[in-house]
Amino acid sequence: MQFKDLQQGVVNNALSYGQKYQIAIDEDFALLKLIEEVGEFAQAVLIHRKKSRPEKHVSEEVSRGELAKELADVVGMTMVNAHLFGIDLEEALNKKWLSQEKK
C-alpha cells in the first residue's frame, strides 16, 4: 500500500466517524483530537514503564499492544490534520526527515 492510499483511508475513516456521530471533522476538531491522542500515548508509556498506579500495570505484551494502538492514533490524527490543512504529508516528511540526511 502506498503512503497516499494509507492516508486517504485514514481520512475516509475519520470522515465516516464524523458522519456517524454528527461531528464536524474540521481543523479545530482534528487539532484537539491529536492533542488528546498524544496524551493517551503518554499515558500508555507511563503504564508501560510502570510509572503509574500499580493497578494500571499490565503484562509486557498487553502494554506494547496499547503503545501501538495509541501511536497509531497519533499518526492517524496527524494524517487527518495534514489533509485538512492541505499538506502533502509524504512530501513534507521527505523534505524534513529524508532530504536532511543528504546534507
Give an account of the 3D structure.
It contains 4 helices and no strands. It has one domain: Helix Hairpins. The longest helix has 25 residues, at 60-84. By secondary structure, the protein is mainly alpha-helical. Helix 1 packs across helix 3 (60-84) and helix 2 (27-48) runs antiparallel to helix 3 (60-84).
Q: What pattern of helices and strands is seen along the backbone?
A: HHHH
Overall pLDDT score = 96
Terminal residue distance: 29 Å
Radius of gyration over C-alpha positions, nearest whole angstrom: 16 Å
Helix and strand topology:
Elements: H1 3-21, H2 27-48, H3 60-84, H4 89-98
Helix pairs in contact: 1-3, 2-3
Quick tags:
103 residues; mainly alpha; Helix Hairpins; 4 helices; 74% helix; globular
Can you summarize this structure?
The chain is mostly helical and 103 residues long.
